Amino acid sequence: MNSAEPARQGSLRERNLALVARQVIDAAEPLSRADLAAMTGMTRATVSTLVDQLVAAGILTELAPVARSGPGRPAVPLAPAARTIVGLGLEVNVDYLGVRLIDLTGAVVDEIVLAENLRGSPATATLARLGQLTRDIITRAESRDMRVAGAHLALPGLVDTGSGVLRIAPNLGWSGIEPLPLLGLPDGLPTAVGNEAKLAALAQLWGCPAARRTSRTFLYVSGDVGVGAAIVIDGELFGGGHGWSGELGHVTVDPSGPACRCGANGCLERYAGKEVLVDGVGLDIDVPGDVLADRLGAEDDAARAAVDTAGTALGQAMANAVNLLDIDRVLLGGVYTGLVPRLRPAIIAQLESRVLAAPWAPVWIDPAPVADHAALTGGAVTVLRAVVDNPMPWTARQARTVPV
Amino acid sequence: MNSAEPARQGSLRERNLALVARQVIDAAEPLSRADLAAMTGMTRATVSTLVDQLVAAGILTELAPVARSGPGRPAVPLAPAARTIVGLGLEVNVDYLGVRLIDLTGAVVDEIVLAENLRGSPATATLARLGQLTRDIITRAESRDMRVAGAHLALPGLVDTGSGVLRIAPNLGWSGIEPLPLLGLPDGLPTAVGNEAKLAALAQLWGCPAARRTSRTFLYVSGDVGVGAAIVIDGELFGGGHGWSGELGHVTVDPSGPACRCGANGCLERYAGKEVLVDGVGLDIDVPGDVLADRLGAEDDAARAAVDTAGTALGQAMANAVNLLDIDRVLLGGVYTGLVPRLRPAIIAQLESRVLAAPWAPVWIDPAPVADHAALTGGAVTVLRAVVDNPMPWTARQARTVPV
DNA sequence: ACGAATAAGTTCATCGGATATACAAACTAG
DNA sequence: CTAGTTTGTATATCCGATGAACTTATTCGT
What are phi and psi of B53, to 5 degrees? Predict the structure, then answer.
């Protein structure tokens, strides 16, 4: 009933701790307390107490002072702490399942990825296996004195982020399950589920600190069997009412087009999905992404036709999205990553003719910087982001237990 | 360079003043200080000082105590203050120009609307005339001791909200002008320009206090010569990178469809724009909305065909938007307002077949509650919203000058 | 009619947290 | 080795939320 919380005394600390933590973590190079004071406008005294709290919490560390150029006392450089607080990214997808552990510096601390065909696999057993892998990684991490801040599971389907229910994952053949309890993770470990494409999009933000400061608004389009998208606005994922935004694959490209397995017809997926792409050049659906890219990059008619059809359809769907959202940056992931140079001309042609604001707001099309299992990174990073955005609970206890 | 501001001491007051002001203004019935304390979680003491400040600023007023049901001291009901602080909405559209003055209760305090054909009118002269009307209204308001918080101008075109430049308004025949200076409004009066459909969307939120508390997320689609849309998420307009979001009229319905004056082809506007609707039933483009609705409501083949084509195209474009945004409420405005019962079946049919999440998230289609010159209301309301969201500057001075 | 009960609103001492100012620390330049 | 410069810390102050006690205005029971 009560939407907005009041600002209490402690809110100031909460916000300013988060502010300082974010600045240090997003910075290109280590910052000093004095730098932070200058950037934020707070006094050096205030910044000092905040930094001290964050260092004690294991979120930041002081590096060895480096020699300065000019006169004056040398600054103590601050950086995100390595291997203190870590986040878990989990994923089950059609051709692999895996766990990735990342620390606040963005480094992958530990990882298990098993490549196998999981189409039609039993959800309960598969998730139990993933849970076992995860527990192994947690044990290893804790024995090395790291604190695991939470786990975020990525699934290729419609996930109700509120209730944690997977409505349907067509390519896995799963539907109507609650995946988190099936993992059997330790009690008290904060967990969440999300859509694979959306988490992959967030990985793009984290994968490149420069991106976090500049182009924090973009559309991420991931091509696989399905075509998923995610809308990132000012560094925040836009999930929509239920977390089901970004279904670009089922945007109508041609109302009299071929039937789609979603029940409608003329969906983008029928022109630019992986199935259509591999069919067009006579490959199998399980072909690795780089092999497909190579084949589609060849200079024969079949490849050219497949890429052209896909690019034009993609461009048209994107034009719709850009007309609606006024976003001027698109990152292409999944099987599209390696095809960007081939796809770009057809996409741009559609955007230029169909986007009303095109003359004043050109759209940039780029391959997604984080490619390998981006959703694993995205999940882990989402967990860590929650820590950085609310460092308060981590400043209190020294214990290794996870704060609620 | 520095994105986030730190939370200073005063930020608490700022936020909590805004919180209390919003609660009172959005409430269905008057609230007491004690109610507010219970709702927000702040102590009665804190709420009291906040309320006193807001009353002194002319944002809230105490009503006469009413008899209570049970025992105890009767509460002092609080309500938004009438005719103290007011906001101006301005608009130039193809068939009228006008000014509307609204106070914090949402009441229209003053208004001038001149119906005339402004297609191809000279921008400078037209805006100068609108400015004169506005100055008259300001003078009247100030002589009645009201403080004008600002003016917001609505135009039917691509407005760069950052720079205040109107890129192009095809139906007016205006392009590349900076409209605000041409109004010649008093120095120091905060002014802004925005797109007409977007401001109309915000009017829907304000027009119905109940809406502000419940369905604060919706897509507003306004049909006129062009088809515009606005995305409202949790009570905030989503403008996109440049404020050019919501160009639903140029979403592609059929890639092999008829040419559109935007240069592309198969745009929604070519199926559901007012020009096509009036053509379909042999009326003139300047026909009033209710006459058109009557004619299209008739039971003959021409009317049925026009409505069917428009509804199906609208539904398809909306399905794209819903797949992308996961929004489950659509408000139809402009010429569509009176046609909702006729349009709904075709729209729903498209949504049900084309929206992937349709089985779990049915979409509601309703006529927009605020119909008459909604953008005028939207502009005024946007100005007032800025006051409510940041009441601090109004608490300081008692002077009638507008705070910067 | 009168006191007990009850709820609304206010007063005041307290506390958390940012701020300004002064100061100590660590370095460079001449 | 001293003056100058910048970083980081200590201390008094101020702002604003809080909790507890208190005042005010009403209903209810007798």
Answer: -65, -40
Q: Does any CB of chain A come closer than 8 Å to the CB of residue B344?
A: no
CA to C1' distance (Å), from A63 to D9:
19
Q: Which of residues 268-307 of B touch A (CB under 8 A)?
A: none
Contact B116, B125 (CB under 8 A): no
* Spans of all domains in chain B: 9-80, 85-202+374-396, 209-367
Among B8, B238, B354, select the one facing A252 at the smallest CB separation.
B354
pLDDT in tens, B241-277: 889 999 999 999 999 999 998 999 999 999 999 999 9
| A243-252: pLDDT as tens digits | 999 999 999 9
Burial of B115 (0-12, 13-18, 19+ CB in 10 A): exposed
CA angle A46, A47, A49 (to 5 degrees): 70
Amino acid in position A163: S
Query: Which class in CATH covers the domain with range A85-202+374-396?
Result: alpha beta
pLDDT over threshold 90, residue A399? no
Crossing angle (nearest 10°) for helices A44-56 and A9-26: 80
Portion of chain A with pLDDT greater than 90, in percent:
82
Range A9-80 has CATH code 1.10.10.10: yes
Pick the CATH number of B209-367 from 3.30.70.240, 3.40.50.300, 3.40.190.10, 3.30.420.40: 3.30.420.40
